[in-house]
Amino acid sequence: MALSDSFLWGGALAANQAEGAWREGGRGPAVSDIAKYRPNVDPREYAIHHAHTVESITAAMADDDETYYPKRRGIDFYHRYPEDLALFAEMGFTVLRVSIAWTRLYPTGEETEPNEEGIAFYEGLFTQMRRLGIEPLVTLSHYDPPLALALKNNCWVDRGTIALFERFARTCFERFGHLVKLWLSFNEIDGIVRHPLTSGGIIEETVEGSILQACYTALHHQFVASASVTRMLHEMWPESQMGCMLTMLKTYPLTCHPDDIAATQAKDRLLYLCTDVQAGGAYPRLALNALARQGVEIPFAEGDAELLREHPVDFISLSYYMTLAESVDPDAERTPGNTVLGVKNPYLESSEWGWQIDPVGLRISLIDLYDRYGKPLFIVENGLGMRDELTAEGRIHDPYRIDYFRAHFREMIRAVDEGVELMGYTSWAPIDIISASSSQISKRYGFIHVDLDDLGRGSGERRRKDSFWWYQRVIATNGADLG
Ligand code: BG6
To answer: Might you give the EC number(s) for this enzyme (predicted)?
Structure first.
């Protein structure tokens, strides 16, 4: 069997999509609170970049509605986590990825002292995880920058945000460092160019100059912040580890025409830019040149280059859902993926949301990343969003989900067999939660069903789907029995 005994199995969630309780415990508003339910968007336009203006944000915040702003209510993980953790433990989880909402600790991002109610919530959560033998894997920033900072100065575009984030991270390490040993700085850090508000707290209408420049300025500040908190973590808790997190959007050339290969190569260069900086310690020259050709300049301050070089991450984590193709043919058929639109691959099937299902692509991605960086990897998101049907007996039969995971696990194990160092696997999401892109819950990912519909109607009751028992068996046999 390829997987080692220390391999971690579990699931992944984000605060803004699960916790709800948006106005409880002293929490301040985050950009996720203004994300509206978007059920009928043409899948080809699916992306989480909402065209918000200061006016639309002000109007949204004056509205108490939780029906059409589903991330405000989530699945009430804030109150129901003991029950949910018990179900995860029943499945045999040895790891759970969650995120800390910055605005539960620092409601506007600028306070000088943390909000003790927020601290108490996460302390309770991590303590309970440890009691159940579940290792916390904690993301510091997952799509929920403080709204106050977004409105004040476009959050990460302003270099001053680095110091605010350092303060937040220091509090997390001081107060939770004895419970949490595995950290991630930014979820899908590369996403900022695809959804500037969600990742970077950037309100496009208020940006002076080019939005692309604003995104790369903000990204650079996040790189610097990430390296700085990596150094801080190592100083405070030398045995703890920090990872970066990449949206692994692997692209294949649609044909072997050299122009398609060259176009794919150019895409890959930007795909790997973030890991090149966070794991490799420097911006690659060709990526910098490619950005310069688009008028983008990276705002290096004194000491940035040394900080990035001297404090790379300990491991690389990735989300993996699908792959896309690339072609220079402008008429090539397109399909949506995870916050992107790309060329359709004729060899792959797609989900209702257009995401192309590609288990072999997971093996290819793991090998590519390991070949390139030689650092341990961690799959921290992978899963299939589908509609589920509740039978009259209250059961959910989800063979499609089991098939998806089985095929991906086979390829993951093959990659490990070939020599890839893989620390663990957390599915997205082990329990149904609110979708990041569309704010639906009907795009269900979980092994556990939550009795709520898209408008929040239902009891919230948790039910085990067929896949629950299947995953339990996979974990119990460390991947030897895939059914
Ligand atoms: C990842 C995000 O990109 O994709 C998650 O980190 C998100 O937050 C997941 O939920 C699945 O996307 P969606 O839009 O189906 O929820």
So the answer is: 3.2.1.86
Give me the mean pLDDT over the 227-243 stretch.
98
Q: Tell me which residue has its CA closest to atom 8 in ligand 1.
A: 436
Whether residue 2 lies inside any domain: the answer is no
> How far, in Å, from the CA of 428 to the mean position of ligand 1?
8
Going by C-alpha positions, the residue among 306, 271, 276 that lies closest to residue 373 is 276
Strand partners, 342: 335
Domain count, the chain: 1
Q: Is residue 194 part of a domain?
A: yes
Query: How many angstroms separate the alpha carbon of residue 435 from the centre of ligand 1?
Result: 6
List all residues 6 or more positions away from 120 whose beta carbon is below 8 Å from its beta carbon: none
15 within ligand 1 shell (Cβ under 6 A):
no
Give the mean pLDDT of 116-140.
Answer: 98
CA gap 320, 12 in Å, rounded: 13
Nearest to 271 by CA among 346, 342, 360, 356: 342
**pLDDT at residue 45 is higher than 80:** no
Rg (CA), the chain: 21
pLDDT tens for each residue of 54-99: 999 999 999 999 999 999 999 999 999 999 999 999 999 999 999 9
CA distance 144 to 258: 41
Beta bridge partners of 336: 341
Ligand 1 and 437: CB distance under 6 A:
yes
Range of the domain at 418: 8-476
Is residue 265 included in any domain, yes or no? yes
Pocket test for ligand 1, best of 137, 244, 249, 319 (most atoms within 8 A of CB): 319
**Distance in angstroms (rounded) separating the CA atoms of residues 476 and 483:** 12
Measure the CA–CA gap between 446 and 88, rounded to whole angstroms: 11
* Ligand 1 contact, 14 CB (< 6 A): yes
Residue 483 in any domain: the answer is no
Q: What is the pLDDT of residue 338?
A: 86
The sign of the CA dihedral 314, 195, 45, 261 is negative
Instruction: Say what the pLDDT of residue 306 is.
Output: 98
β-strand 241-247 against 349-350: which pairing, if any? unpaired
Question: 53-62, 111-120, 231-240, 397-406: which has the minimum mean pLDDT?
Answer: 53-62
Q: CATH number for the domain including 13? A: 3.20.20.80
Angstrom distance (rounded) from CA 424 to CA 322: 19
